[in-house]
């Protein structure tokens, strides 16, 4: 079985090229964008329009309420199910998006099967609240007499997750790592073709500026106001998304309209730089395709 992956930095033009390729090759699209999972996050996420989604079937869009975080294990399971279904219908699979963490799931294991029960999360959270990071580290070292490996012991979030996983699995961090290193890739057996859409940096920057202004003109502030009422701030991934965090600050009086636009543009520029570096160092060898060329994607 084969699948195709089209990635590239924010605002490079992935959506238009993906729609055209899908139409030309009898394909369906699987999203690999961390903001498209959430219902109601339409304008700020640059979600494909209803007309575009009617023209080409899309998957893994609007799978979650805005208050319900997505995790990579669930994403991988849904992606595998979607890809298998598309191929069973005799159609091509096109994965489109630029979210590195979810993109990586198509090439290499990014999560294991350790599930942390709510009671363990609550116990660890209570310990952190009452006795802070030293208490978590003491318990973690008790459970890992051979050491903590490369764990960032100054990072409360990483220490918390490590302790939760040790308590839930009954296994040391070293044992967990050894088991994880032996996991097969989620799409082992698939023939994967990957292309990165590229564009001159100055052109990309101009598109970033136009896109941010268009989102505000289209009603981003009203969208965020509605999503806040639906629990946007309960979802750390959604509330921190570019455009949404800045708009919340605007609604709270922390940013003027002009400052809001500039904040969105500046943060998007930082994301673009980060994406370029990630694609260069983390993606396996892949095809580079200029966005404005007529060169085939794959």
Question: TL;DR?
Answer:
This protein is of the alpha/beta class. Helix content is 52%, strand content 10%.
Chain-averaged pLDDT:
95
Which class best fits the helix and strand makeup? alpha/beta
Looking at this structure, what is the CATH superfamily of the largest domain?
P-loop containing nucleotide triphosphate hydrolases
CATH topology of the largest domain: Rossmann fold
- Helix % is 40-55%
Biggest sheet: strands, sense, closure?
6 strands, parallel
Number of strands: 6
Taking pLDDT < 50 over at least 5 consecutive residues as the criterion, the unreliable ranges are none
- Secondary-structure arrangement, i.e. CATH architecture of the largest domain: 3-Layer(aba) Sandwich
Order of helices and strands: EHEHEHEHHHHEHHHHHE
State the helix count: 12
Can you describe what's shown?
There is one protein chain. The longest helix has 26 residues. This protein has two domains: 213 residues, P-loop containing nucleotide triphosphate hydrolases (Rossmann fold, 3-Layer(aba) Sandwich), CATH 3.40.50.300; 64 residues, Histone, subunit A. Helix 5 crosses helix 6 and helix 9 crosses helix 11. A six-stranded parallel beta sheet has the order 3-2-4-1-5-6, with helices on both faces. By secondary structure, the chain is an alpha/beta fold. Helix content is 52%, strand content 10%. The model has no long low-confidence stretch (mean pLDDT 95). The radius of gyration is 21 Å and the shape is globular.
């Amino acid at each position: 079985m084969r699948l195709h992956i089209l990635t590239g930095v924010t605002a490079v033009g992935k959506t238009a090229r993906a729609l055209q390729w899908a139409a030309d090759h009898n394909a369906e699209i699987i999203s690999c964008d961390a903001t498209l999972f959430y219902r109601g996050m339409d304008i700020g996420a640059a979600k494909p329009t209803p007309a575009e989604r009617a023209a080409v079937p899309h998957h893994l869009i609007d799978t979650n309420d805005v208050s319900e975080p997505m995790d990579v294990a669930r994403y991988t399971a849904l992606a595998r199910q979607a890809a298998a279904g598309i191929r069973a219908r005799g159609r091509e699979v096109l994965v489109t998006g630029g979210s590195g963490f979810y993109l990586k799931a198509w090439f290499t294991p990014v999560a294991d099967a350790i599930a942390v029960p709510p009671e363990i999360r609550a116990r660890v959270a209570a310990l952190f609240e009452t006795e802070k990071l030293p208490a978590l580290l003491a318990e973690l070292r008790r459970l890992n007499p051979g050491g903590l490996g490369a764990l960032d012991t100054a990072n409360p979030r990483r220490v918390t997750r490590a302790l939760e996983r040790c308590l839930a699995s009954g296994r040391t961090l070293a044992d967990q790592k050894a088991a994880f290193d032996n996991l097969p890739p989620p799409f082992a057996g698939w023939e994967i073709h990957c292309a990165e859409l590229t564009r001159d940096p100055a052109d990309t920057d101009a598109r970033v500026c136009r896109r941010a202004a268009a989102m505000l003109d289209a009603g981003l502030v009203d969208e965020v106001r509605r999503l806040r009422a639906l629990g946007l701030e309960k979802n750390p991934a959604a509330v921190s998304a570019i455009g949404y965090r800045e708009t919340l600050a605007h609604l709270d009086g922390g940013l003027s309209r002009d400052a809001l636009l500039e904040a969105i543009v500046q943060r998007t520029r930082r994301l673009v730089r980060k994406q370029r570096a990630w694609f260069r160092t983390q993606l396996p060898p892949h095809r580079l395709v200029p966005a404005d060329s007529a060169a085939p994607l794959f």
